[in-house]
Specification:
Number of helices: 5
Shape: globular
Number of strands: 2
């Protein structure tokens, strides 16, 4: 899977260390379904509406319609899974300072 290596997610949790990781929803599904981590962890999903996601993708590079549809379908799946699996959902369309404040607020209560 893309991004963070699985062991770099699991190892700190197994050692009961505080850690902040950005992971794909697929890793979260794997961790939760395998139930390999019994320690407390908190999940936060930074949510962006699909319309804004689509606009950003198209602004970054020229993208074929079928590739855009594939990416948006994947994002829709991730959003759906996050709604079921994540402890907190943050509106990431807010100014960056507000998103960081929301994350810090959650972390300060742990």
């Amino acid at each position: 899977l893309y991004g963070t290596e699985y062991n770099s997610i699991v190892t700190p949790l197994q050692q009961q260390k505080n850690s902040i990781k950005e992971i794909e929803i697929y890793w979260l599904i794997k961790i939760q379904e395998e139930k390999r981590i019994e320690w407390l962890y908190t999940t936060i999903f930074l949510d962006i509406p699909l319309e804004i996601m689509s606009m950003r993708m198209q602004q970054r590079q020229q993208i074929e319609d079928d590739e855009l549809t594939r990416r948006l379908n994947s994002a829709s799946f991730e959003k759906s899974e996050a709604a079921k699996r994540c402890d907190h959902i943050i509106d990431a369309t807010q100014p960056l300072e507000d998103v960081c404040a929301a994350v810090n607020n959650i972390c300060s209560k742990l």
